[in-house]
Every structure is written in structure tokens, then in C-alpha cells.
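Subject: Related to iron-sulfur cluster binding protein

B.,
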Amino acid sequence: MKELVIISGKGGTGKTSITAAFASLAKNHILCDADVDAADLHLLTQPTIEQSHDFMGGCLAEIRQDKCISCGTCRDLCKFGAISEDFVVDPIGCEGCGICVDFCPEQAIEFPQQKCGDWFISSCKFGPMVHARLGIAEENSGKLVSLIRKEAKQLAMTDSYDLILTDGPPGIGCPVIASITGATALLLIVEPSLSGLHDMQRVAQLAQHFAIPTMACINKFDLNLEVTKAIEDSAEKLGLTVVGHVPFNPVFTYSMVEGKNIFEYGKEPELLDNIKEIWQKISSSKPMTDSEKIIPLAQ
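Prediction pasted inline below.
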């Protein structure tokens, strides 16, 4: 079983559109949307939810008034000013650090876990899909990413799927680290801008740190050929294989408006052939054909 994680150094590079296009080309695969902070792969796959689960994340302090002796220890220790003069915790101000819980002399503060979002196992027009929705302004997105990747891997092993196609989050932060750890290979979607070049270099360094084989695809490459050339040169220095160049084409937007990927939309045959060629290069690359299994995710 293999896992290809498609990532980008910044948002808006076309990562999800290309992931959805690959979903029409891949064989015996399941989809995983690991961009839990701004999940949107479901807009193109139109999944039917078969299982829905609560995601329990961080904890919030709750003072039991029947035990509290108003000693003020918790209020003195709280660095976020989340405890009022009458010893009531502001749930928005509380950062869930737990110091008040640990040092309360009367053990009058409870610390229950909170629901931070939902995760789902669904069926869609391309096969099974594991995805999630993090609550507004909630934390622990990295933990949720690890959870749904673990569930996707378990589903793939149980039902004998060969490939997990994962739409990862942008950037280099905790959710990205959680989405790439243990992956077979990464595909980095880059756009021809100075910020795209800079962010590609940062993501490539992150991938090198975790020793994960990484390929690059330059999307909308013809919008700035000078920067595209700089990206190609930088990719070579970083040891990245550039597997393809996708031209700017509004058909991506038109198909998205209709809730379809570009193969379902069925126009611009040259563009479709281009995406097919890129997929062929990815699926025949050494990381995707090597028999070595992916590294197990932490339990």
C-alpha cells in the first residue's frame, strides 16, 4: 500500500483541483482530505457520509463552585486572564494549559475534553473517502490530521486498497507535518510567483528533514515563464523531480463551479492529456513502484 500526499507551500495553488483530477485516473484507491482547517475536496467529490464521528480535542477548565474556596490561586496562575473575580472560567479566554487544574489546593477544577470537530468515512463517485471538519477557531488540527490518516490507512488495509491519495494542507506547520509523516511520496504543487518559489523551498526542506521522496508540479506555469525557470533551477538544486507543467486554464474554475473535476467536465483534451502524462510519471516513479511499505502512523 502506498500513500501519495499532495501539498503546497501556500494556499490557492490548485492543489485540490489536481488531487480531484488524479482521483479519476488512480486505480484501486481511497481519498483522504487532510486539509481539515479548510476542507474543500468534498466540493468536487460530493461524498455521501456513511460514518460520522466526534473529534475530541483540547480541554477547558471548569471550576466547581461547590468545592471552590475562592483562594485565588487559579486566578493568580492564569496567564491568559480567563478566570473572573467570582471564579468563573471564560471558555474563550481559556487556552487549556491546565495549570489551574494542577495547582488548585482543593482540586475544585475539572478539565473535560471538548468536541473540536467531526470526521467522516464516506463513499463518493471515485470510491471511499476519509475526511474531517474542524470547528471554527478550534485547535488540534494536527491531531485531527493524524487521526483521519490513521483511519484511511486502516480502511485501505482492511479492504485491500493499493493507494491512499491524500489532499494535504498548505504551508509547513503542524498540520503539514502530521499529513506527510510516514507517506510514501509527496507531490508539491507550485505556482510561478516569488512567494510560490520561496514556499516551495521551505516545503522541500521540510520533506528532506523527514526523508520523504518529493516531486514537484508547476501549475499555471505559463503565467510567468521567468519565475517558472527559477523554480525549475531551484528544484534541481533541492533534488526535486519536476514531473510536469500545467498551463493556466479557466476550465479548472468552470468545472469547480459545477462540482466536477476536469475529467468529468470533459473539455480541453490537450489539458486532460497533460494531466494524464503527469499522473503516469508519478505512478511510475521509484517511490510509487518500490515494494517497501509506508511507515506505520503513531497509534
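The two ends are 18 Å apart (CA to CA).

T.
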